[in-house]
Amino acid sequence: MSIKILFFPVFLSFLFSFLNILLWKIRRRFRSFLSIFGSFLVLISCIYILFFNLSCFTQWEKLSQFFAILISTISFLCMIYSQWYIPFVNFIYDSLFFLFSGAMLGVVLSNSLISLYIFWELMTISSFFFILYENTEEAKNASIKYIIMTGTGSIFLLFGILGTNFIEKNILWKHLFFFSIFIGAGVKSGIFPLYSWLPDTYLSVPTPISAMFSGIMSKTGIYAFIKFYFTIFYPEWSTFWENLMIIIGMITLLSGVLLALIQHDIKRLLAYHSVSQIGYIFLSIATGTSIGLLGGLYHLLNHSIFKSLLFLGAGVLIKMTHSRELEDYGNFSSILPFTFLTFSIASFSISGLPPFNGFVSKWIICQALLEKGTTLSILGMIISLLGSALTLASFIKVINDSFLGVGKGQIKEKISEKSFLIITPLGFLALNCLILGIFPSLVINKIFNPILGTISTLNIKLINLISFWGYLFILIIFLIYFYSLRLTKKIKEKRVFIGGEVISRELSDFDGSHFYKTLYETEGIKEFYEIEKKGLLDSYKISEKFFNLSSRISNKIEIFMRDEIYLKGRKFILFLTEKFRTFQNGLLPRYIFWVIAGLIFIMEILVWRY
Hints:
Elements: H1 3-6, H2 8-22, H3 28-51, H4 59-85, H5 91-109, H6 113-131, H7 137-162, H8 171-189, H9 197-204, H10 207-233, H11 239-261, H12 266-285, H13 290-321, H14 337-351, H15 357-372, H16 375-403, H17 420-438, H18 440-452, H19 460-488, E1 496-498, E2 501-503, H20 505-508, H21 517-520, H22 525-533, H23 539-581, H24 588-609
Antiparallel strand pairs: 1-2
């Protein structure tokens, strides 16, 4: 396939980025149309290239096009949403947006490792400026942390790329280069313990960009790792790395969801859930099997959809209340019914409940781990089930605080959900959460089988059966809910009296932020939270402490060298030169005396020697 055709979406993205700079004086309404139209063209070009040239593509070129369509779709929806969320934004935002999405497309569409790295760096730079976009102190600190950690990851990735030609010459070098690739891709994905940049960054950028960071940018790290692992190093080449990746996947999954449980900031909570879901993907890929790769890719697709939907739904709450704190929300289900519905669908999806899409991919991941059959993989399956239960518990808290509950929050900006700019992205993503969950066989046959081939061990009939019963269960729940709404109209609200005093609803009800305080005090888990609070799980803070310690040690060495070696040595040399100056006083008799004394000394030595 011609490289010019493959890179046409990248060219279009950069073209519209340049047009936004060139036409910086045009009115916002025209720029909105230009940007939405440009994102739509990029999406259409990706779809056209895939479906009209499918027979010409190799397996890995089809995978690249799958990622390209995913990136362009989420970008298009986030661009639509941005026109509502930031109505008065200037041309810099739209220009950066196209530069950022074009760089991500370049990463997945590159046909060489060097061009992949060039677009990787361009993606890092453009996302760095997005973090600085709002120019707050929080954004400045997050940007420094981001550029240091991802910059270090890029150095590791470059080292691994440069070493790909030498991996067969020496097994030690092969391990070293694989480690470099793993670190480089792992930093961008957000695996344990390299995820510490992620929560701070997601908080600092505008919410539509948070959706892109979580939904698609983190997936470029997954893409890079898949490409290296399955085409250059090949699975099962090292049992050590296979087991280590499974362990890291389990720790990433569990630590992410445990940290999410205790968060009150909705964007930070969603950021930690991104870490947890990346753990699922890495856990599946680490099996090295076809069904494991299928589970990883399916969950990657699902995560891009439901996590983007969660961030966009959170953006509606943030815009209405001007706050990210869950304590400032509550009882918004009647005010934001559409957001409540779509956010609930995304919450059930990420929790892995049937018939939503998260259930299907998590089921395949569990089947891949069970099929692997090792002790670690079985433990990984148990951890993944526990992670799903904790994820559901976390989102029960979020839904209660945001849409149900007491309703302590103050509405600072009236929101109308009737806008096309809200309905389109939220509705499309929510619909796909259902389609990818109710029709998994269609998704696997049309999307993943052309890439991976037919996987005979996958029990798709059982998945379809469970999804069907899950669909009926959800339908019954909704019928009960709507029926209960009719009943509640006939129920009279009574005031609560305690000791003769009327207790307000705010005091008698409770909010979800206190749901899991007992979890924080649980032995074993409490120690984990204390370790995290001290920053011992934050690789950035640990590195910062290490460099501070090394700088103090080097400073003490410098002081020692200056005071003990240089200054005292200087005094000693000056003392010697002062003494020798007495021998060089310019008197000829004294010079003759020292010459004769020296000759006598030499003669005595010669006589004693012989």
